[in-house]
Amino acid sequence: xxxxxxxxxxxxxxxxxxxxxxxxxxxxxxxxxxxxxxxxxxxxxxxxxxxxxxxxxxxxxxxxxxxxxxxxxxxxxxxxxxxxxxxxxxxxxxxxxxxxxxxxxxxxxxxxxxxxxxxxxxxxxxxxxxxxxxxxxxxxxxxxxxxxxxxxxxxxxxxxxxxxxxxxxxxxxxxxxxxxxxxxxxxxxxxxxxxxxxxxxxxxxxxxxxxxxxxxxxxxxxxxxxxxxxxxxxxxxxxxxxxxxxxxxxxxxxxxxxxxxxxxxxxxxxxxxxxxxxxxxxxxxxxxxxxxxxxxxxxxxxxxxxxxxxxxxxxxxxxxxxxxxxxxxxxxxxxxxxxxxxxxxxxxxxxxxxxxxxxxxxxxxxxxxxxxxxxxxxxxxxxxxxxxxxxxxxxxxxxxxxxx
Length: 404
Prior knowledge:
By secondary structure, this protein is of the alpha+beta class. It folds into three domains: 2-123, Acyl-CoA dehydrogenase/oxidase, N-terminal domain (Butyryl-Coa Dehydrogenase, subunit A, domain 1, Orthogonal Bundle), CATH 1.10.540.10; 129-238, Butyryl-CoA Dehydrogenase, subunit A, domain 2, CATH 2.40.110; 252-394, Butyryl-CoA Dehydrogenase, subunit A, domain 3, CATH 1.20.140. Helices cover 46% and strands 12% of the residues. The chain contains 13 helices and eight strands. A hairpin with a 2-residue loop joins strand 2 and strand 3. Helix 11 runs antiparallel to helix 13 (383-394). It starts with a helix and ends in a 10-residue tail after the last helix. The model has no long low-confidence stretch (mean pLDDT 92).
């Protein structure tokens, strides 16, 4: 942690610059505009906010300058993400894959034509991307995926199904894994593609969640033709490409989430000071106070875990199982945080309200927040996957038995 603090202490002028820009450019009424907004309005707002962030170079601080990014140091990126979170600015939810996973993949493995075709379009705000990795029977064991891509001359014909693809119904392109050599060992016969979701044979089916929204999607592929020029990396070598994709973000998104959770704790305190229908303050309840102390302590522990990971990145150390530990810790904490909000809010917390589109995971609409918190046990690698990684790679326990 001391390494992070030492690096950041020299960046106070930059921090002040970011704060000033946010004070001048963050739309004061964005919460009102996006509370209860429909999906179409949310997309329009996300694109406008993305382009606004591009003006000072804050939308793609990690991209190299030669590709339109800011080329910020990692320490500068930490400061930027902290200040964006503390200001309560909208999250660029629709652009996460495009901003992180696509450049992390194409800059290392893509062809020059692929980079020229897509990277400028992303920074113009014109392309939203999703990811097509998980399948109904290949989540905890991704290498066992069954979607097939058969090469036929200058193109591949793809058949199969993907699931849990975030915002696929709003995206134009998909980072797709498919099996191209069914005779090879599981991870050795996979290839990596760019899929245009407007290609004939692609069917998107949003998955209705218990919140009523449809953040995740199923993708059905029936004789979908993908040009060979959309192959990323070597044929049958997609597993190595996928590792670059999954390691591209380096912990900055969870830093932002941790900072937003810190800010969100203020909403819990405010809610606990509102009298119940019986005229009692929730803050006077011993059990509520105990749970609030527990959540607050765990928020600070989360921030320490994140700082340790960021210190390792600053020192150039390879990531171990820390990202899995942090993901698992955050998912459990978010569920308990929002469940506490429901307890504090009582019956009023369960009344139907307008959802804050693009907000943090702690909006103060506690029932919505709590129901959506369960999505975090799936997205970004399910809690079961994270536990397996920690057990097998971190604790060196025996591997989970494979199904016959």
